[in-house]
Write a structure and sequence with these properties.
There is one protein chain. By secondary structure, this protein is α/β, with parallel strands linked by helices. The strands form 4 sheets. A 6-stranded parallel β-sheet has the order 5-4-1-6-7-8. Strands 12-13-14-15 form a 4-stranded antiparallel β-sheet, covered by helices on one side. Helix 4 packs across helix 6 and helix 7 packs across helix 9. The N terminus is likely disordered.
């Protein structure tokens, strides 16, 4: 009995343990089921969020962007005292204006302004700037000197401001380095074209700025014929008599005519451009009711071997407005569209030189020129055209 009782007791004890295990197992299964349900719900939420993100990404990739191409980036890259790379907002009116634009995606392509970098540092700069919507163009110190300080500031800027006395003499261009400056100008425009081509999509609008990049529209058109390209000039465009003194005038015009839209400050500058096109390009273009039609021979796009067959042609329009041609000039604000009467222009011929003042007399219609040097005013006289007044200034400035 004792043994039987012992066996029976063990059996009862075993039966109690079995019931406990069953209850515990049910609770465990319930907990596991709850956890699995939560995991399934979380997975569903994750898939929904991923789908929404992919939809936004797809729309963002298809939505047109504005690719701003300027000589400088809105973010300056400098080397600190300890050799580290420092990033700051670049100064300038155009940077300040465009940084305030909202409601559109903007990518900025420009010169990084730093030349003492290693390959690893350049890659680091690219990644950092891309997160800020910028694509850097790296130039060597010699390229930057010949392009920016050379051809842009010593040739184009004075010419576009009627300081024709500073134009280099073709007979001495090899001694003065003028030919090397022109080659650097072409090379740098090529570097910018390669950088833009890496990021621009067919639906994008490429907005090129200023005289530093006047060959760029043609180079981009050769690479991507369907790209929408605009160009805006932030300086005056000179009259034909001045512009034709530039030896590579036709190359400059050819590069600009590849754009879909050209913008100028005021009506006079657009008229000067049209006059230059009709006189210097000759039968290569024709005037239409709202612009210029030009059959542009596109060179083979660089980087990828030779091509076969003839180069394609593209007819591009230029918006402007002049004498009976209904050309529409772009204007920067109401001030740029104001009447010329009584308007005063202050144009600098250098960073540390005097200033040129050309004032139109509203009564006589003539132009007065005066030179300011060392805080003193030097009267130069009245002239019939602004060009004559500017030439008088150039001669007085020496």
């Amino acid at each position: 009995l004792a043994v039987a009782g012992g066996v029976g007791g063990d059996g009862g004890g075993g039966g109690g343990a079995g019931v406990g295990d069953a209850v515990g197992g049910s609770a465990s299964v319930a907990r596991e089921g709850s956890v699995i349900g939560q995991i399934v719900a979380l997975n569903r939420q994750l898939r929904e969020r991923q789908a929404a993100y992919l939809d936004r990404l797809w729309l963002a990739q298809r939505a047109p962007r504005v690719v701003v191409v300027a000589n400088r980036l809105p973010v300056r890259v400098q080397r600190g005292d300890n050799g580290e790379l420092l990033y700051s907002i670049s100064p300038g009116g155009m940077v300040s204006a465009l940084l305030g634009v909202r409601g559109m995606r903007m990518i900025w392509v420009g010169w990084a302004e730093i030349d003492d970098t290693t390959a690893a540092e350049r890659e680091q700069i690219r990644r950092t700037l891309w997160r800020r919507g910028c694509v850097p163009v790296f130039l060597t110190k010699e390229e930057a000197r010949l392009h920016y300080a050379g051809f842009c500031n010593d040739v184009l800027w004075p010419l576009f401001h009627y300081v024709v006395s500073r134009m280099p003499d073709i007979k001495t261009d090899l001694r003065s380095g003028f030919h090397a400056q022109w080659e650097a100008y072409q090379a740098v425009n090529g570097h910018f074209a390669a950088a833009v081509a890496r990021v621009a999509r067919p639906n994008d609008l490429v907005w090129v700025h200023d005289y530093h990049l006047m060959l760029l529209p043609g180079l981009l058109r050769a690479r991507q014929p369907r790209l929408r390209i605009g160009w805006f000039l932030h300086t005056p465009f000179p009259s034909l008599e001045v512009f034709r003194t530039l030896p590579m005038r036709k190359e400059i015009l050819s590069g600009l005519l590849a754009a879909d839209l050209l913008g100028f400050h005021i009506y006079d500058y657009s008229r000067h451009f049209l006059h230059a096109c009709t006189q210097l390009m000759g039968s290569e273009l024709s005037l239409e009711s709202r612009g210029i039609a030009w059959d542009m021979p596109l060179p083979a796009a660089g980087g990828g071997g030779g091509g076969g067959g003839g180069a394609p042609f593209a007819s591009q329009g230029v918006e402007a407005e002049a004498e009976g041609m209904q050309v529409e000039a772009a204007a920067e604000g109401r001030e740029a569209q104001a009447a010329e009467e009584g308007m005063r222009l202050q144009l600098s011929s250098g960073n540390s030189t005097g200033y040129k003042g050309v004032t139109k007399d509203p009564r006589s219609g003539r132009y007065a020129a005066e030179l300011y040097e060392g805080g003193k005013r030097r009267w130069l006289g009245y002239f019939d055209t602004p060009l004559e007044a500017a030439v008088a200034y150039a001669r007085a400035a020496g």
